[in-house]
User: What shape does this take?
Amino acid sequence: MKRTVKTLAVAAVLVAAVLILAPDIHSCHGILSYRFMPIEKARLEFVKVQAELLKQRRLLKEVASPAVDQWVRYYGNPIFQPGPKGSWEEVSVDCFTVGYFEGKYWLWYVGTPRGLNCQIGLATSPDGINWTRHPENPILKLGPAGSWDSSILLCQHILYDKAELIYKMWYVGGNPKADFGIGYATSLDGVHWTKYAGNPVMIPTQSWEIGTVIEGQTVLKMGGEYKMWYGAIAIGSDISYMGYASSRDGIHWTKHPSNPIISPSGGTPLEWDGYSVDTPDVLYDGKIYHMYYRGWRKKSGISYIGRATSPDGAIWTRDPDNPVFVTGNIPGAWDVFQIYRARVFWAEGGEDRPVAAVDRMWFTGRDYTLKSQVGLAFMPRQDIAAPKPPGRRIPMTVNQDNLNLVVEMDAAGGATLQYFTPWLGNISLRVFDASGRQVRSIVGEVQLPGFYERRWDGRGARGQALKPGLYYAELTAPNSVLTKEVILVK
Assistant: This one.
């Protein structure tokens, strides 16, 4: 399994590198912005870009896979891309729902055209990787002029109601005046939809929602009751919180009195989700609710995906292993700027989805041109009965700009060294004695962005037992060094 994880990780990065070198795939911004320069300057810039990409390719040949269990990108990402030039979805595809119905995967998604009047389309797949668009796309269209959803459709969530034998959709709509709300629609086949005449069924009403767009929702039906988790984002400030509501009919909603149920984590400096939290994806394992959500720590900044759990859907505890999934870090890659809108299928399967040997996460990736596409990640697990594998034992606060290193001494006289790097590059982890003399090299290799764990047995480079006392663990990446104390005892 570890060999498979490493193969997938390396292949994923190699494919990302291929995308870097394919100008017809990317718009002319970011790494390809030289095209807008005066010709002589453009030629010089082009040489610099080629040199940087050559350096990256050389690094990729040496890359090592993270040792800690974590999500591994599919080597063929992105698995779902925008449509052809001039189409209703030529700019971006995102804000999707994934379901498994009638023996195939269904992907309802938002397509963005040049005019930004987004609508909702459908694609199906036999494997969740290779998708065929529906010929009647977009399957949910803008409302007529003057209607509440005449300008844009976004962020839908769809479930199949077995009791009523009908597909149900909750979606975000807006008009040219930027009045937004959540609407409701139903369908007998998942393709042809009837909008509820009383739309929208939810609008900002609580004080923390006023001045925001409520969106990014997930809906579950449990025991005859609908439960909705949603984000509320203030467009001007980019600050977002998450709320919770319930309904007996999916139309009339009661918002929870303790909203917002998840707020930015704050911190000094701000943690990875210290500025905003949004786009919840919620699953229930029979006892506990599990949420995968997007977090970021500065306005319009890089976003990661984290996880939280709750006994009742209202009181949430962040996973100490957060963030559980980070952006790609190859210059020009399709998901280098932001990842969000996770949709997770657990390995144990369940109703309406097949049993699998690994967890799956479909997610949206965005580059610095703001082009959004859909990718897929896997988490191999040995114990498929549990909804989450054993993670890092040591809580670790991370952000997108810094290394992090945590040291935990063990009873055997050694230490567990867990660390995080947000960059692709040469990483070294070495141990020095109190005089500054290197006594052990633990890591010295090119590594992907992510979490890692190594154990130091308290011995020197030749295997000799070292004297008890003060030592230093030094983690080094290009342009960054972090040092932590280690106390060896008998």
Notes: The mean pLDDT is 83. The first strand starts at residue 63 and ends at 64.
